[in-house]
Design goal:
Layout (H helix, E strand, L loop, with lengths): L28 H10 L2 E5 L5 E5 L2 H9 L4 E2 L15 H4 L10 H12 L2 H6 L1 H16 L3 E3 H6 L1 H11 L6 H16 L7 H21 L5 H7 L1 E2 L2 E2 L2 H15 L1 H16 L1 H9 L4 H12 L4 E6 L3 E3 L2 E3 L4 E5 H4 L35 H18 L4 E2 L4 E3 L6 E4 L1 E3 L8
Parallel strand pairs: 2-10
Antiparallel strand pairs: 1-2, 3-7, 4-14, 5-6, 7-10, 8-9, 11-14, 12-13
The structure holds protoporphyrin IX containing FE.
The site of protoporphyrin IX containing FE has 25 residues, from helix 12, helix 13 and helix 17.
Length: 413
């Protein structure tokens, strides 16, 4: 028996959670369970002699996420390598990397343009896109749900949100794939070329929309939004669009694919939704909790402090394992059971809470709901038709193939 198969016999001291081998079959929930019980705030040494504090409990992840004064996103970024995606000097312009008071001001401006009302108004457009995407496969009686549904839905919705022409979606797909690969690459700065190309394109698109002057676009709403007399300039709008592409694509894609896989593997739960589709929103919260596709983000201590009985030094990194927090037995009964009817607690799929809580959570929930509603209506007998495929990563729980079959239907678009 290998050590990966017997997490209860492992010497936790020897475990490096940054080694992707622990994530080959998805998040290492058995290991996380032991860590929550035995070492919830644990020093994880890295091969290069550095290390980080690994947080696995709901309580400390909530505490760190809410205490931005002690645990900074700005100081050294939200990954272990400050230059992981692109150099820190550039990523610091992103909302995700800011601390208060800058973060507060910037987020208030963005929230003005990204209200629940704005998101609700997108429902018809999202449904029209989902209809078209299902039309492309419904007559076949089979598809790869990951490739044919989970990939195009968030890309199409992002294009809709940012006012980009549909014919440019393949380019958007190419950039997002390259950024995602850079995310998993050991090389720092690997996403820079893709970001530079995408930035040039987004710049043109923002200028075009500004000239056309349609007041009901996100570009124009962002240009008008004002907090304490301050407004965003076009370069800040561009940076925000870059963040939307990074934050709103793979996250939603993997939750869609993983959520559908989980439902198909739990036919009793899927049956509850078939009988009563009004339960879809509660099922979505359980899918988010159960899959928590973003595995971690990091923060850096701004001062010496104490956390869960451990002394954390100024400059130390802490890594928050969201799938572990979402299955913390201190918060959820029988946390490994997938149960759409469970009492809802705040899962950590959208982050630990506090100021950086996912700005797109409302939009992601809308996309998940519309897809589930339309799939259950049009493919009521959907079932697994083969082995799901996974991409190895300890940063995102990625399903890249999900073969399904169903009785062929008719196009509606
Ligand atoms: C199921 C899909 C999604 C998941 C699992 C997810 C997850 C997350 C997580 C874990 C964070 C970090 C929170 C923190 O540091 O505390 C985050 C932040 C963010 N997300 Fe999402 N996200 C999803 C969809 C979206 C969508 C659709 C958009 C927009 C189109 C979006 C935009 C953002 C932005 C802008 C932030 C930064 C917020 C800030 O720093 O203030 N996300 N998301």
């Amino acid at each position: 028996m290998t050590s990966i198969e017997a997490p209860e016999q492992l010497d936790l001291e020897q475990v490096d959670l940054m080694d992707p081998k622990w994530f080959e079959d998805g998040p290492p929930h058995d290991l996380f369970r032991r860590m929550r019980a035995e070492a919830p705030v644990r020093w994880n040494p890295l091969p290069d002699g550095t290390g980080f504090w690994s947080l696995t409990r709901h309580a400390e992840i909530s505490q760190v996420s809410r205490d931005t004064a002690t645990f900074s996103s700005w100081k050294a970024g939200v990954f272990l390598n400050p230059d992981q995606v692109v150099p820190l000097d550039l990523t610091r312009n992103l909302l995700l990397y800011k601390d208060p008071p800058e973060h507060t001001k910037y987020r208030l401006i963005l929230q003005k343009a990204f209200t629940p009302h704005t998101v609700a108004k997108l429902e018809d457009a999202v449904r029209a896109r989902v209809t078209k995407i299902l039309d492309a496969v419904v007559e076949e009686g089979a598809c790869d749900f990951a490739r044919d549904v989970a990939v195009p839905v968030p890309l199409g919705v992002l294009a809709e949100l940012m006012g980009l022409p549909d014919e440019d979606i393949p380019r958007l797909y190419d950039w997002t794939e390259r950024i995602e690969e850079a995310q998993r690459s050991p090389e720092p700065n690997a996403a820079a070329p893709a970001f530079v190309e995408m930035a040039g394109y987004l710049h043109e698109q923002i200028q075009r929309q500004a000239q056309e002057g349609n007041e009901d676009t996100l570009v124009m709403r962002l240009r008008r939004a004002e907090v304490d007399g301050e407004q965003l300039d076009d370069s800040e709008i561009l940076v925000f669009f870059g963040l939307l592409v990074f934050a709103g694509n793979d996250t939603t894609r993997n939750t869609l694919a993983h959520g559908m896989q989980t439902l198909l593997e739990h036919p009793d739960q899927l049956e509850l939704l078939r009988e009563d589709p009004s339960r879809i929103p509660e099922a979505i919260e359980e899918v988010l909790r159960f899959s928590s596709v973003v595995q971690w983000f990091a923060r850096t201590a701004t001062t010496d402090t104490e956390l869960g009985g451990q002394r954390i030094a100024e400059g130390d990194k802490v890594v928050m394992w969201y799938p572990s927090a979402s299955r913390d037995e201190a918060v959820y009964d029988d946390p490994d059971r997938f149960d759409i009817a469970r009492d809802k607690q705040d899962h950590k799929a959208f982050g630990g809470g506090g100021r950086h809580f996912c700005l797109g959570a409302g939009l992601a929930r809308l996309e998940l709901r519309v897809v589930l509603e339309e799939v259950l209506r049009r493919m009521p007998d959907l079932e697994l038709a083969g082995q799901p495929g996974r991409l190895p990563s300890n940063w995102a729980n990625m399903v890249n193939a999900l073969p399904v079959r169903f009785a062929p239907g008719t196009r509606e678009g």
